[in-house]
Amino acid sequence: MRAFPFLFARLDVTGLCVIAALAAGCTFDSSQLRALPDGAVELPMAPDAGAAGSGDDTANPADAPIATGGNDGSAGTGGGTGGTSGMGGSDALAATGGIVGSDGPSGTGGAGITDGSVATGGVDALDAPVATGDTRTGGTAGGSTGTGGTGGTAGTTGTGGTGPLPAIVFFGSSSTISAGQSSTLTWVVRGATSLSIDQGVGSVLGVTYITVAPTQTTTYTLTLNDSVSAQVTVTVPPDGFTATGNMTVSRQYHTATLLGNGTVLVAGGLGSANRYLQSAELFIPSAGTFMATGNMTAARWDHTATMLPSGKVLIAGGTNSAGSLQSAELYAPSAGTFTATGSMTVARGGHTATLLGNGMVLIAGGESPTGKNLQSAELYDPAAGTFTATGSMSVARQYPTATLLPNSSMVLIAGGGTASAELFDPAAGIFAVTGTMWVARSGHTATLLANGTVLIAGGGSASAELYK
User: Fold this and answer.
1) pTM: predicted TM-score of the whole model, two decimal places
2) Residue 123 forms part of a structural domain
3) Which domain holds residue 198?
4) Which of 22, 25, 19 lies closest to 6 in space, CA to CA?
5) Residue 396 in contact with residue 373, Cβ under 8 Å?
6) Cα separation, 465 vs 444, whole angstroms
7) pLDDT 10s digits, 133-175
8) pLDDT, tens digit, 9 for 90 and up, residues 274-316
9) Of 310, 311, 276, whose CA–CA distance to 296 is shortest?
10) 399 lies in a domain?
11) 121 plus 15 within the same structural domain
């Protein structure tokens, strides 16, 4: 066997020395070697990675088979995957006496991709020992180590709120109660050396609540250390009354009529600065609110409103800037509108209007446009939409009362600037005098009781009386 000169190269890649021997007869251009750090050199690579060498397998058949070169180092894992190193060309079996074929150059390992994670560069495996008479180059190292990404800056921890608690908190479980009900007063305090509530309660140091049951609206004051205090007012409406929603406008001397659908029609009256009102509105009991509805055909106060069997409401007479009115109109709940109907036989305001058993409406008394009290009466026929005169009362009356009596169909007309009273008989269309009240009354009330008697009250007097 021939002796082969050897060329040694030292490659510093990861601190390992890799020794390669090139057999005589294999050529290379030494000018292509380039200096690396620490005096290392790098062998030139073929341009095509992984191409097999073209060996001569006809000569030197007795040579031993070529040992397999070392495995290529794996490419480092970067933020993306590095290129895979090319495999060395397959060794050809050398024929006896022949020249060993050159291995194909290894492909260049992919470079590590720089991203947030550090890619680990591949490490060359040591070549297997070279058999006599042949040379083999190991695989090239894998991709270079990628540069690690810079971590984000951690957020600053927020500062929790601080500050002292209020020295005193005081509240009631119910701010409005009815007579006989109770409310629980509760408080939270700090640094208390003395704590008391007025209204006869006294010291409450050591407790956090009490129950109170005032019979009228009462304000309770909680005093801490004789210096700091807080108040709670418990409202007790008089006689069981509680506030509800407000009307859309301020009004007085208006009418209020319960409709078949449960709402209440409020119409006309005097507004602020004694302004005559043409507007109307509805009270919705389920919501406790008022809402506007259609306007009347004329502004009026001192008028009457009578619920008819049809469900419509008859608005008759009244007074406005023109004086007493003769006109009348009907309100239709289904449409929410007012429309004119027939006019009364005379203009009047401050009169009475009573729905009779036969469906007619009795209009009686009142004040004329000249300010004279009226003695006349008339009937409204809903079917015809007209008014016709009926018998006159025994005396003229303004602001009397009219009450339909049960089981007789008679109407009791009482007072109206006098103590006298009389009964209207619808069948005969006439009035007849009945008993006299104890005092003369005007603008009073008359209420039919369950036992059939009529309670007469007020009207310029504190007195009251019963009609049987």
Assistant:
1) 0.55
2) yes
3) 168-240
4) 22
5) yes
6) 11
7) 443 444 444 444 445 445 445 445 445 444 455 578 999 888 8
8) 999 999 999 999 999 999 999 999 999 999 999 999 999 999 9
9) 276
10) no
11) yes
